[in-house]
Amino acid sequence: MGMRKVAVVGAGMTRFVRRAQETPKELAWQAAKMALESCEMTLDDVGAVCMGTAPDSFDGVHMKAEYLSDGAGAWGKPYMRSYVGGGTGVFAPIQGWYHVASGMFDVALVVCEEKMSSFYPHAQAAFLTIFDHTTERPLKPNLLWIFALEMNRYMQTYGLSKEDIARVAVKNKRNAADHPCALLGDADITVEDVLNSEMLAWPVNRLDVSPVSDGAVALVLAAEHVAKRVTDKPVWFQGVGWNLDTAYWANRDLAYPRYVEYAARMAYEMAGIKEPRKEIHIVEPYDPFDYKECHHLEGLLLADRGQAPQLVADGVTLRDGNMPVCPSGGLLGVGNPIAAAGLMKVAELFWQLRGEAGARQVPGQPKRGLAQAWGDLMQVGTVVILGTNP
Amino acid sequence: MTSKIKEFSGTPLSEKDFEKGRILHRQDQLEAWYAWDTGVAIRTYLAALQEGVLLGGYCATCRKTVIPPRTVCEWCFRPMDEYVPLQDTGVINTYSLCYVTWDVKRIKEPEIPAVIDIDGASPLHGILHKLGEVSPDQVKIGMHVQAVWKPEDEREGAITDILYFKPIKEAKS
Description:
The complex is a heterodimer of chains A (about 400) and B (about 170).
Chain A: E1 6-13, H1 24-38, E2 48-52, H2 56-59, H3 64-68, E3 79-82, H4 88-101, E4 107-115, H5 143-158, H6 162-176, H7 191-195, E5 199-202, E6 204-205, E7 214-223, H8 224-230, E8 235-244, H9 258-271, H10 276-279, E9 282-284, H11 290-299, H12 308-313, H13 330-333, H14 338-354, E10 368-375, E11 380-387
Parallel strand pairs in A: 2-3, 2-4, 9-10
Antiparallel strand pairs in A: 1-7, 1-8, 4-7, 5-6, 8-11, 10-11
Helix pairs in contact in A: 4-14, 6-11
Chain B: H1 15-19, H2 41-50, E1 54-59, E2 64-66, E3 82-86, E4 89-95, E5 97-100, E6 106-111, E7 113-118, E8 126-130, E9 144-149, E10 162-167
Antiparallel strand pairs in B: 1-2, 1-3, 4-7, 4-9, 5-6, 7-8, 9-10
């Protein structure tokens, strides 16, 4: 297709906290500064800035990208915000990728920021407007409904128990105990802790859900000639994909995320991957709820339908298992500042593939990883595949 | 996070910092009022609800019956202007027992939201609504349910003209 090769050359992130003292701009700047310093670049080297941030309603600020622009280093540069709900954090680097792959820019800075804590009484209510205003909102829905409904359908379709699903939360929160930026890492958590946590909307308990959080993450993307100059360990974009399903969410199969499969197939084709289960060494699927990790592994064709919970039970998806899933700790453990959480997954691949992940390092020198996010009204899938080979 | 860096930015605060005024902050409440036009397809849907009918849309090309009706078929992008009356019965596709409100306050008796696949629509085509006249421990996926309508003179052409769906007591052979 005549596209240039693109590498991730730097990454930075803030701690994910329930409530940050820093403003959104300040968080964005901290992450962007750290990403640039990590590859010894300055803002002068950056050709364009890509911003990912989710609903304006969290902050009560209209045109959040413009509000965040100084913190993101966007002044005087081509600047654009992408927004596909929860899928944003993995879409923003795709946007950065095509900025560079197209030949328009040699270096793009990708910044994702989210501050959910400003919204009162609870960030959940900021999501109410995703329901149809005429046919759904008169029923006074809340956001938990759609997740609880989808989780129940998934469990029923494949005969899964709450315990099968709770193991995902346990694995991710334990993994997060090794992440210095994590909000909910817990090395000692058990399946019983998850099952006995407060019931929110059956089958969803408190510990099945990722926490509301504040935080920011940034990546520096560079074209091949720049990447090879600034680092001897560039991590290359091998495939990208994104796809959208119907907005009539009650008019489709809730047990299987078809849109994730379509996004994954697009990325696999671009990366030349024929057997994803053998060729993907690390997976960072989107896990705002524990069942979503299973759901997404199946959509990504990395598990048979209804079989992802068995992989968890068998230890295949542990950090030292055959197919490590969410070695970062995921959204369930590290936290879920929406757009920043998605980009955190791509950043985790970057650190893992460079062998810099410290206590979280996946053994065996992994060569390729996949990050995926999901959002809008449970209907968008975004996928990025990174690898050590261009 | 990379093991090369040990110190990270991001300073945690707690709710108490705000309650006790330990931190400078500003509060404001935004009010937003809207009046939404119902458009062509949903207007027809709502008018039918007022008559006690659940209306679907039919695409002759894709041979799909969807609910609620819409003006364009997503699959073939052709106009979808055929309305078909469906049953006011259906099958529970999925449900939840919800113990919290939209602002995360606890409630004792759970609300029971459900996706109900409407009889007469294509498979896995349903609507979001609530269940009633059923105890939470009796609800099952696959249960056959029927709409309980508001009295005719109280209907206003809204989704709430259906109060909830209740299980049908079937004489099953």
